[in-house]
Amino acid sequence: MLDNRDNQISFTLSFNSQFCLSVDLRLPASGVTAIYGPSGCGKTSFLRVVAGLEPCPDATIIVGNQVWQQGTCVLATHKRSLAYIFQENALLEHLNAEQNLQYAIKRTNKKLKPNVYQEVISLLGIQSILSQPVESLSGGERQRVAIARALLVEPKLLLMDEPFSALDLQRKHEILAYLLKVKRRFSTPIIFVSHSIEEVSLLADYLVVMEQGTVAKQGATSELLAKHELSRYQDEEIGGTLQGFVSDILPEWKLNKIQLAAGAVYLPFQNSSSIDQPGYRLEINDAVRVRILAKDISVSLSYAEDNSILNKLAAQVIEIKLEEESASAYIQVQLLSDSENGNQQGAQLMAKITRYSLHKLSLKKGDRVWVQIKSAALLS
Ligand SMILES: Nc1ncnc2c1ncn2[C@@H]1O[C@H](COP(=O)(O)OP(=O)(O)OP(=O)(O)O)[C@@H](O)[C@H]1O
Question: What is the pLDDT of residues 263-272, one digit of tens each?
């Protein structure tokens, strides 16, 4: 649960009579917060106000114990302990990668903690490209250097504006994997802007949904996803985002065993996805999140031994959503999995099944069922 909400951001910004951005937020002091919403809802303007790049006379911006702005009392951008990663990273083209890093460190006038430099270089996998001129780097390499540079100034807040938008799908997954590593290793709070639910569900712990300059929803990403508050924003309905840890690695079967509160699930090594990039390997006890799409969850009344599905969790039907009965062949079944550990609550899941299946199983609220998970993605 996110209860340490230290960063306070509130302001109203009007560019003209057409657009007004009005926010009042307390955000977690650690982890990744996503600012999500459609084009033109004010995401970039939000970041710019936080960074002090957009003048806003009535803003209150407090980051940890530092007041960055309180009305007309404004701390200049260069005095704010922040790093900003743009859509197209702004590396200095006439320098090589290492010189870019050194330049940023020098400008902070701070002494870098021992080992941090080497650790950041190896975390982002940029040792071999340090001596290369920026102009010779690929889009993904540039973005990795930009992330390293941001970390090396040891900011109190890291802001990222659509950091994947200039990258192709493969590079995007690669950078996502590096950011997941950054998130694990560094406690620096990150606010990132995105209009992709996939990126948000992969990276963000806390989510702010914006619509037309206002905050439409906010909360822990996993809770908003579990309550299906975001279904109208996404192409694929998410059936659940579950927290767990790696309890076993089975190289002979190319599977990771993930222990969730609700039981264990086996997930394949992901050769083509972000998680299996060079330099990133899961280890026993690593904390991970697992995302399951609603269409990959099926429901059965008894424990079926004779099918190929590995992942089966005991659960109870909480609600059957029939509103769209006439509109679609599918309905949503909300489930609460049993918890193997009595102290923890089970996980909320949502299965998308046909109305015909519901009819054949005579499924109703309160029924005990087995949830079968056909496939799932390993997140962070
Ligand atoms: N300096 C400015 N002057 C006038 N209008 C502006 C200015 N900056 C942004 N706007 C307007 O404010 C609104 C919000 O813009 P903003 O760039 O913050 O949206 P966004 O959610 O980041 O959009 P996108 O996802 O397309 O980048 C838009 O209507 C934009 O045209």
Answer: 889 988 764 3
Amino acid 300: pLDDT: 94
Outline which parts of the chain fall under CATH 2.40.50.100.
239-378
Whose alpha carbon is nearest atom 25 of ligand 1? 39
Q: Indicate if ligand 1 lies below 6 Å from the C-beta of 109.
A: no
The ligand 1 atom at the shortest distance from the C-alpha of residue 195 is 25
**pLDDT exceeds cutoff 90 at 363:** yes
CA dist 151 and 83 (Å) reads 8
Does the CB atom of residue 142 touch ligand 1 within 6 A? no
Task: Read off the pLDDT band of 77 (50, 70, 90).
Answer: very high
The C-alpha atoms of residue 339 and residue 60 are separated, in whole angstroms, by 42
ipTM of the complex: 0.95
Q: What is the pTM of this model?
A: 0.70
Fold of 7-234: Rossmann fold (3.40.50)
Does ligand 1 have an atom closer than 6 angstroms to the CB of 195? yes
Give the integer Cα–Cα distance in Å for 180 and 379: 8
List, by residue range, all CATH 3.40.50.300 domains of the chain. Answer: 7-234
Amino acid at 214: T
* CATH fold of the domain at 239-378: OB fold (Dihydrolipoamide Acetyltransferase, E2P) (2.40.50)
pLDDT higher than threshold 50 for residue 216: yes
C-alpha closest to that of 197 among 243, 226, 237: 237
Whether residue 40 has its Cβ less than 6 Å from ligand 1: yes
